[in-house]
Amino acid sequence: MKYRENKNLNLAQVGVDMLSHWKQNNIFEATLKNREGHEAYTFYEGPPSANGTPGIHHVISRAVKDIFCRYKTLKGYKVERKGGWDTHGLPVELQVEKQLGITKEDIGKKISVEQYNQKCREAVMQFKGEWDDLTEKMGYWVDLDDPYITFDRKYMETLWYLLKKFYDKGLLYKGYTIQPYSPAAGTGLSSHELNQPGAYRDVKDTSLVAQFKIKGTENDYFLAWTTTPWTLPANNSLAVGEHINYVKIKTFNPYTFIPVQVILAKDRVASFFDGKAENLSFDEYKQSDKLIPWTIVAEYKGTDLVGMEYEQLLPYVALPAPAFTVLAGDFVSTEDGTGIVHLAMTFGADDHRVSVKNNVPGVLVKDENGNDVPIVDKQGRFVKEITDFAGMYVKNYTGEDENDPNYKPTDVLIAIKLKEDNKAFKVEKYVHSYPHCWRTDKPVLYYPMDSWFIKATAYKDKLVAFNKTINWKPESTGSGRFGNWLENLVDWNLSRSRFWGTPLPIWRTDDGKEEICIGSIAELKEEVAKAIEAGYMQEQIPDDFDLHRPYVDNIFLVSPSGEKMLREPDLVDVWFDSGSMPYAQWHYPFENEEVFKKKYPADFIAEGVDQTRGWFFTLHTIAVMLFDSVAFKNVIANGLVLDKDGNKMSKRLGNAIDPFKTIAEHGPDATRWYMISNSNPWDNLKFDVNGIIEAQRRFFGTLQNTYSFFALYANLDNFDWQEDPSNYYTQTESDRWIISKLNSLIAQVDSAYDEYEPTRAARAIQNFVIDDLSNWYVRLNRKRFWKGELNADKKTAYKSLHTCLVTVAQLASPIAPFYMDKLYLDLTLEDKKGSKSIHLTDFPKSDTALVDKDLEQQMDLAQNISSLVHSLRKQHKLKVRQPLSRILIPVLDAKTKTQIQAVEDIILNEVNIKSIEYVDNTSGIIVKKAKPNFRKLGQQYGQMMKELSQQIGKLDQKAIAGFETSGALELEVKGQKITLGPDDLMIQSEDIPGWTVATEGGITVALDIHISEELQREGIARDLVNRIQNLRKELGLEVQDKIKVVVDDANSIVTESIQHNRDYICVETQALQLEVVNGVENYKEIEIDNIVVKLNVAVVKPN
RNA sequence: GGGCCUGUAGCUCAGGUGGUUAGAGCGCUACACUGAUAAUGUAGAGGUCCGUGGUUCGAGUCCACGCAGGCCCA
């Protein structure tokens, strides 16, 4: 039996090797089989889209997912994880458009919808191979063979089922939203299209400050500014800022010279009124005067104005109350305009939102079918009801020459009319940035577009309440970001006017009076059968009917009254696709009802924080509204991956990290370990490759070294870890200590994982391996491993170290699955139980009986004291090789003394000191210091603390001694007597007069720096050993080679040293002979404390 | 403009419920060790805890207002 000895650690190679081991032995499948019949832990995979290559940020979010699935598997749960792909939506469509060199308009013309969607279907899985490759190489265990795919017809059928459920509950309705619209192109524009470079450009428009007459006044007006005068006939209300200050100003209208009083924001007065004209005489004013007098006559808060009514500015279309009132708007600012905003519900998103909120009707007219339509038609012309401007284009959509002196834009004509009617206060040209249609170059209008909504607002309270039961990591994302989003919920706009997506399963008659929502393919067939009977359809749809466009669009149904019904042309939001995955991945309710019920809701999901409004929201909303449940119980919202300077990674800037390259160079484990241990997943990660290298060197390197050390000697001794398992840890102090530490670690790591704190787990493991196991346990116990036969003590040492290594591997395996599996297999050599992988084992259990906090404290003391002695040695330039006789440690209580005594050997060994002497309280030579117990005294004495602590600091030795014997002390602070009890002061030793001391954390150490002749001889002997060892190494000798040493007798002190320490030197250097002679042949010169020694080292050949 | 997060040593990060020398690793400097050796150990230098106010006997920690960076949404 041999433990594998690996010289060089190559984590990248380990990743490759273990991956093939897993594949060959079907380990992933085995981990599931291993937990057959166990309780399920449900994880939902948020589907990525494979139309682009994966980035390094995908590695961290998938590492997080993987960690908890592996952890729960070790804990005994059955953790199936079905993969998935998000396949519909705009990004794919845009990619295909680009690839084919077409635009949205060409679809259905240059290319059929059928062909186009076929292209999308191909494009969306373009990089599936790379994704699968990364998934494997990074060690993300997820079922890639049977993923859910959102374009699958079964998947889509579930979506229809869900949509119908919404519909039946009355939660799916048709309304409209204000969206960018290009009258010239006759199409709505997505925000994506508006964000195209060049879409926004500076234009010179007619801006206008209109006077809105306040109801019931003679000549009082609100002033509101607009850069789109054509929207004024649609004005339905005004908005003010509640916290903005307003003033009423008495002045004259500059066009009609009629006396008026106008209201506007105080901050904006200077922009409209000349300071020189303030308080000029109104009586002396003549129409030809340049300066128009004005004066402030009243001040208001925004809240004072809210609710005031005014007269309609351009009364073409009458509106019922509460139209034409002042509303509060959170978007109102005093950066420009008048601080009062004109609202036209039909032509602005804010306008629409505020109007709906306040139940203010918009300005609408009836079309020929009796439907409500806005006052501008889809071509961009005023409707006939706007008599003065009927048929006029609100912007230049007909290509008129704007440089023609006779050209008058509609905005100007409106301005002229308002001026004449004493309704305009200021008209001027204004340059601003305005969006343009990228196809036609013509200005965009914000226009009401038909849309289907899910009435999420109706379930707001429930959505909020259920959210509070979800465990969010970090908590703030749940209560803040997500919670606030729910608090300010608006209805979910489902409609998308695109081609590649799930079609809305609603058919309607032309007049919109009859409609049907289809919830399954079977139902569609039934309806088609009726339609065939009614003569609207020729034949039944096939069994493998594709639910995509254009096929669904070619289906006509018949209404109960016999009318023909057409499908509503919209697709549903792709977020509905992914939010439906808990149901659709199982084709619920058409199949797998039992499976679905077992795996709902999810115990755990994890995605980027940018999904808050995306997947997290849609999962939650569908679950709460339709299933009266949360969709997930625990969620980690991880942060972004930035470059090492904190900048966003982008392919354009060239600072993006290639995940394949990173894993190939540094291995998956170091990459994962770095990402998890460096910072919490929910904090942004500043990705620095040097961090991976450090993790590799420091953590994996140390662990591997520790293993190599074990393997080297265990193999020499033929140690079998499966033998003699009894009582191994009880023998030696340091064994009991490391096993105690190990069991503390297990508990710590277990709870960290359990609380979804992977970073805490990683750091705890790392500290144990580096500080406790390698730097302390192994270092202190080295000799036990190499000295002598394989006796009981040696076995316990092996056993302890082996246990630590195996356990660490198990604890760390969720984070570093490849290396830890290899380490485990190397350690257990595919043990008798036949375990082929660490991932098939059970998570270690912390045995509290083995945890000895007292012992852990003792070892802390040993480390502290050693550190203090090292520090003292350094101060006096006394190297550790030079033995010293003693240290003094003042001990004020018996417990400390016992604790130090327990680890005395360790300390003496570590710092090369002969003995520890304890100076107890009765010796009278310790200088002590008293410190107030701030926590206790502070609460009691409050304001007197400052002086009290000063007095305590000044206490002399006598006073402290008195306090120690009586347990009480009286002080006088500010004339008040204070009696201090035993717990009020902390007494520490501080100094021993005449000694050099070092103090830390209440422990004081004094070092005897006197070097006797004997000590000096011993020191020299040690140096000699050191030098001889070096020479052995230079000669290239093996550990077991014996030597003969001859030393020149030129220095009496060296000679004496050899005489006194002959045995020691011989044992340490494996010397069979050690001679001191006069005149050495073939000598080498070495130097010990400036003494030059001549000696010769030669191999003694075995006989 | 709103919501949320972050700001502690040159770099990456720790610092329950406020309590008196603010910690670790890396890097740097020096030393030691040489039977884990392309390893290892120890020590040292290095801090206006982003700023300004406030609460308190006492603030890195609590509150307010800012500043800088990031994300999401307008």
Question: Characteristics of this structure?
Answer:
elongated, RNA-binding, alpha+beta, four-stranded antiparallel beta sheet, 34 helices, 1103 residues, single chain
Rounded to an integer, what's the Rg over CA atoms? 42 Å
Tally the beta strands: 40
| Main sheet specs | 6 strands, mixed
Number of helices: 34
Helix content: 25-40%
- The side-by-side strand order for the widest beta sheet comes to 10-8-9-6-5-15
pLDDT < 50 runs, ≥5 residues: none
What value does the average pLDDT take? 86
Alpha-carbon distance between the two ends: 31 Å
Secondary structure class reads alpha+beta
Percent of residues in beta strands? 15-25%
The geometry reads as elongated
How is this structure best described in words?
With 1103 residues, the chain is of the alpha+beta class. It is built from 34 helices and 40 strands. The protein has a six-stranded mixed sheet. Strands 4-3-16-18 form a four-stranded antiparallel sheet. Strands 21-20-23-22 form a four-stranded antiparallel sheet. A hairpin with a 2-residue loop joins strand 32 and strand 33. Helix 13 packs across helix 19. The chain is elongated. The model has no long low-confidence stretch (mean pLDDT 86). The structure holds one RNA strand of 74 nucleotides.
Task: Give a short overview.
The chain is an alpha+beta fold.
Write the layout of secondary structure elements.
Elements: H1 11-25, H2 27-34, H3 56-74, E1 82-85, H4 90-100, H5 113-123, H6 128-137, E2 143-149, H7 153-168, E3 172-182, E4 187-188, H8 191-194, E5 200-213, E6 220-226, E7 237-240, E8 245-252, E9 259-265, H9 269-272, E10 295-301, H10 302-305, E11 326-328, E12 340-343, H11 349-357, E13 364-366, E14 372-374, H12 410-420, E15 424-435, E16 445-454, H13 460-467, E17 471-473, H14 475-487, E18 492-493, E19 495-496, E20 506-509, E21 515-517, H15 521-534, E22 557-558, E23 564-567, E24 571-572, H16 574-579, H17 581-584, H18 593-598, E25 602-608, H19 612-627, E26 632-638, E27 641-642, H20 659-666, H21 668-678, E28 685-686, H22 689-716, H23 733-754, H24 758-786, H25 792-812, H26 817-828, H27 853-875, E29 884-891, H28 894-902, H29 904-911, E30 913-920, E31 927-932, H30 934-941, H31 945-953, H32 957-966, E32 969-973, E33 976-980, E34 985-991, E35 996-1000, E36 1003-1007, H33 1013-1035, E37 1042-1048, H34 1052-1069, E38 1071-1077, E39 1084-1088, E40 1091-1100
Parallel strand pairs: 1-2, 6-9, 7-11, 17-26, 25-26, 27-28, 29-30, 37-38
Antiparallel strand pairs: 3-4, 3-16, 5-6, 5-15, 7-12, 8-9, 8-10, 13-14, 16-18, 19-24, 20-21, 20-23, 22-23, 29-36, 31-34, 32-33, 35-36, 37-40, 39-40
Helix pairs in contact: 1-26, 4-5, 13-14, 13-19, 20-21, 21-22, 21-24, 22-24, 22-25, 23-24, 23-25, 23-27, 24-25, 25-26, 27-29, 33-34
This protein binds one RNA strand of 74 nucleotides through helix 14, helix 22, helix 24, helix 27 and helix 30.
